[in-house]
Specification:
By secondary structure, this protein is of the alpha+beta class. The chain has twelve helices and ten strands.
Length: about 375
């Protein structure tokens, strides 16, 4: 068997033109599939930025909420009711809304404002500059240094601006785990200042973030909150809900799926046609092997080896090319959201195996019907 596979390898690589065409087809298909799914994964990750950065274990919200950006205000009594539930260690309000900042140069910039609980500041970001206590000073805000930070003119400590006709002062520069998705800079302040500066409806609590006394208390907490007519989700459940929304209730998921399918079809058509041509051109060699005693199963192993070797080599080259492009793009474009995950790699690997299987099937059907007599008679 080792000798048969060695012959198959030499037959494959010696035909440099066909081998290169096979690699290019599969590499290009893998590259496109990984790029599309990586961009989708990056968008979903950034869509959950608020959930990841705040880090609360349980989120209480209106059942109609699909994303952190579209919160539905809740009345104050819900906060009191949540705090009274057995198993709740503490619960604090969180404000999330949009404001309009006027910079010193007169330019207006939309911003996302996160209002933290005045007493605990739960969910506060890690500061790079400034002191967290300064957030209690008059007109104080903390700005997040992420890909959207330059849109505010790269403010420093003490920089003044206006937000919804109120004076604002930068007292801290922070970093967060996940940057913003929607192209708006993020400002942190206290809850009471946020609801004072940002116009809102009669109710002002966007979310209630809960710290349970233990993990075992979470199901009971969720049940009690459900009886109030609201929804409680763990951090992971909220992230999955956001992902589900973007996948199935927006055009984003379908567009990415279509582009991925097109990439698969492109790779399959190029590799399938090229591999079939390769088999036709080497038909005499396969017939000669069969004439000198090679079994049909051994010829099948040869074709499977050739298709698998080509597919895996193209897979590795496609992944490498995608990783290089994404890395370079992130260096030049800080707001670029693509990220390669194990799910993306696994999906692309399965697609490559399917391409290899179909290409092998095309080749096997042709080779298995070879009759040595016909080969030598020609």
């Amino acid at each position: 068997m080792k000798g048969i596979l060695k012959i198959a390898y030499k037959l494959l690589v010696n035909d440099k033109g066909k081998f290169a065409a096979l690699l290019v087809g599969i590499t290009f298909a893998v590259f496109l599939m990984v790029m599309m799914t990586s961009m989708f994964a990056g968008i979903l990750h950034r869509a959950s930025a608020t959930v990841v950065n705040i880090g609360a274990k349980v989120w209480v919200m209106d059942p109609a909420v699909n994303t952190p950006a579209n919160s539905i205000p809740m009345p104050d009594y819900v906060l009191d009711a949540v705090r009274s539930i057995n198993g709740v260690k503490y619960a604090v309000p969180l404000y999330s809304g949009a404001g309009l900042a006027k910079l010193q140069n007169g330019v207006y910039q939309a911003v996302t404002v996160i209002g933290l609980d005045d007493a605990t500041l739960f969910g506060r970001p890690d500061l790079l500059q400034g002191n967290i206590e300064d957030i209690y000073a008059e007109n104080s805000f903390i700005v997040v240094r992420d890909s959207e930070y330059p849109k505010l003119g790269k403010p420093q400590l003490g920089t003044e601006f206006e937000i919804n006709d109120h004076k604002g002062v930068i007292v801290g520069i922070a970093q967060v785990s996940v940057g913003s998705l929607f192209g708006t800079p993020t400002l942190y302040t206290t809850y009471n200042r946020a609801i004072q500066y940002i116009p809102s409806m009669r109710f002002t609590i966007s979310y209630i973030i809960v710290e349970p006394k233990s993990i075992t208390a979470v199901p009971y907490i969720k049940q009690q909150i459900r009886s109030l007519g609201y929804e409680a989700l763990t951090k992971d459940e909220f992230i999955r809900k956001i992902s589900t929304y973007y996948k199935y209730q927006t055009g984003l998921g379908m567009n990415v799926l279509l582009m991925t399918i097109i990439s698969f079809i492109v790779g399959l058509s190029i590799s399938g046609q090229t591999f079939y041509t390769f088999i036709l051109e080497n038909l005499e060699k396969f017939g000669a092997l069969k004439a000198i005693g090679a079994k049909g199963s051994e010829l099948i192993y040869m074709i499977l080896f050739q298709a698998t070797f080509t597919a895996l080599t193209g897979y590795g080259m496609g992944i490498g090319l995608a990783a290089v492009i994404i890395t370079l793009a992130k260096l030049r474009l800080p707001s670029y959201a693509a990220m390669i995950t194990f799910t993306n790699l696994g999906f692309a690997f399965v697609m490559v195996l399917i391409i290899a299987a179909i290409s092998s099937y095309i080749g096997v059907r042709k080779v298995i019907r070879i009759e040595p007599f016909d080969i030598f008679r020609g």
